[in-house]
Amino acid sequence: MENELLSLVPEYIPLGLGVYDRDGYLKYANNTTLKMFGVTMKDIYNINIFDDPNITAEDKELLKQGLNASFETDYDFDLCEKFYETAIKGIRKYFVTKVTIMQDSEGNRQGYILTCEDVTLKKMQEQKIIESYKKIKSTQKELSLALNAGKLTSWNYYVSEGMFYKFDVQVENIEKRSLQFIYESIHPDDRSKFVALLEAVTHKQKLPENKITLRVLEINSENYCYYSFVYSAVEDEEGRVVIITFIQRDITEDIIYQQNLIMAKNKAEEADKLKSTFLANMSHEIRTPLNAIVGFSELLTETDDTEEKLEYKQLIETNSEILLKLIGDILDLSKIEVGSIDINRQKLNLCQLCDELYRSFQQRIKNPKVTLKFINPYTKCVAYFDKYRFIQVFANFVTNAIKYTPQGEITMGYECTPERVRIYVRDSGIGIPDEKKHRIFNRFEKLDTFAQGTGLGLSICKAIADTTGGEVGFESKANAGSEFWYIGYSEVEYIEKSEMSDTEKSPKDIEHSLVTSSIKIKDLSILIAEDNNSNFLLIKKLLKDNQLTRAITGVEAIEKIKAQTFDIVFMDIRMPVMNGLEATASIREFNQITPIIALTANAFESDRENALAAGCNHFMTKPVKKHELMELLSKYCR
Prior knowledge:
Low-confidence stretches: 499-503, 505-518
Strand order of the largest sheet: 8-7-6-11-10-9
CATH topology of the largest domain: Heat Shock Protein 90
Shape: elongated
CATH class of the largest domain: Alpha Beta
CATH superfamily of the largest domain: Histidine kinase-like ATPase, C-terminal domain
Number of helices: 18
Number of strands: 25
Domain Response regulatory: 525-637
Number of domains: 5
Radius of gyration: 42 Å
Largest sheet: 6 strands, antiparallel
Distance between the termini: 105 Å
Organism: Bacteroides oleiciplenus
Protein name: histidine kinase
Catalytic activity: ATP + protein L-histidine = ADP + protein N-phospho-L-histidine
Keywords: Kinase, Phosphoprotein, Transferase
Strand content: 25-35%
Mean pLDDT: 82
C-alpha cells in the first residue's frame, strides 16, 4: 500500500518532473510536465536533454561534467519546432529549472532528474513591480500627473517608522499619516485583513495576489468608500522589507455598478420565471375562449332554434372579444419590452367617448348581482389624448373591477382641471391585501391565479402612464373594494353640469341607446385582394348583396383595377408575388379616385402609418366586424 501511494507522488506534485538516462534520453515525465509543455509522453519520449535549444551551452557542459545545474530559462516554444511536437505556439514562458545528477553507490552516473517550475506569472508581476518602482524614482513629475489623471494615489509605508507617506512632487509638502490613523480610518470589518496583509508582506510570506480591497473613511467624509490597493515591497541589502508601496484607486463607482448588475440579474431571473408562468397561463387563457368559439360555432350549424342560435352567437362574440384582448396585451407587451409604446395624441370629446365606453362596458357585466354606474359631471369636456391608450386604461380598470367584484357596485367616472384629466374606477369588490399591494403593477402578476387574464393589464397601464408623462395608482382595502385611477396631463376645455344628479347613468337610463341601426349596402362593385380562402369567404358572406371580384396577388389586383372600375377596394397587406403596400403605391400612380381600404392582421400603429403613406384611405384590422365594414362602405360609397 505504501509503495502504491509513493508511486502516485510524482504525478501530483506541482512541479514538472523529468527523468533522463545516463546518455540524456528522456524516459519519464509527470503530468505536470506534460501540461506545462503541451505534449504527451509519446511526443517527448527519448528526446535528448543535450539537444534542447533552450538550455545554454554552458549549462549543458556542466551536466556533461557530472555537475548539478540550476538555471532560469526564458523558454521560447518556437525554437522547439524540430525538437518535439507541441500544441503551444508563438509564446514564451519563464521556467526555473534544476537538474540533479543521479549516481549509484560507487559514484557512477545513472541519469538526470530535472525539476521545472513555471514562474511566468510571478516573473511578470515582479517585472511590473520593478518597472513601476523605477518609474517612480526616475519620473516623479510625470507619475504625479498620471496618478492625478487616473484618480490614483500612491503611499509608501516605512516599516521601521510605522508611517505612511503620500507621493507628492513637492516633497516639502508631503502628507504623512500614522499607522494608527490609517487603521482607525479603515472599516472595522476590514481592519484585521489590513493588519494581516502588512504582517505577511513584512515577513515576505507568499500571498495569492498583490492587491487588496478596503473600505476607508476619508477625512471630512461621512460614508466609507471602496478602494483597491496594489502593493509591492522594497527590500534593503540584507533582504529585509523596509518599504511597502501602495497604489490606491477609488473603486466605489465600480462596486456600486457591480451591485446594480447583480440586482438587475436577479430581476431578470425573476422576470424569466414570471414569463414562464405567463406562457403557461397564456396557453390556458387562449384555449379557453378558443374552445368556446370552436364549440359553439359547430353547434350553431347544427341547430334550427332561433333562440339557441342567438345565444350561441352572443357566446362566440363574447369569447372572440376575450381572445382579441389577449392578443392585444401580447402585442403591447412586445412594445413595452423594447420601450416603444406608440402615443398619438388627438382632440377627444371625453363626454361622448366615456359615454360610449360606459355602454360598451355595460354589456360585459353578466353577473346580475353587479351594477355599473357612470358619473359624468360635464356637459362638455375636450382634451388631447391618444384615443386607443385612453380606452385601454379605462378598459383595464373596468375589466379588473368586474373580475374581482362578485356583487355590489362599480362606478366609473372622470374629473377635470384646466391642465389634467383624472379617470377612475371604484368597486365594492374583494379589495387587495396589504402584503400584495407592491405587486399590483408588475408584469405577469395575477393576485388570483383562477381569475381570467394574463396579468398584463395593469402593467400596461403603468407603462402608458410613464410614456405619456402621467400618473397611475390605486387605493384599496381587503374585503372593502378598490379605486384605480389614472391622471393624464393635457389642455382641457370643460363645462360643468349644474346639477350633479343629472351626471349619473344607470342601465335603465341607457337601454334606448343600445339599439343600433343596421346599415345595408348593396349592388356595389368591390375588389377583394385577399390570398387566404377563409378570409375571402368571410368577406363574401358579409357583402353577399354586392358584386365581388377577387385578386390573390398584388399584381393581379393592379391588373383588375386597370381593366375594370370598382366602387371600393379592400387590400390585404401580406400577399404573394407583390404585397398590398406595393400594389397600392402602384395603383395610385394611375388611379387617385377609387377608395382603397387596408384590411390586414397587422395591428401596430406603424402598420397603419405605412398603409396610409402608401395611398390607402383607411386602415382596418382583422378580425372583420360586419357593422364596421358597413360603416366604411357607407362612408366611401355614398
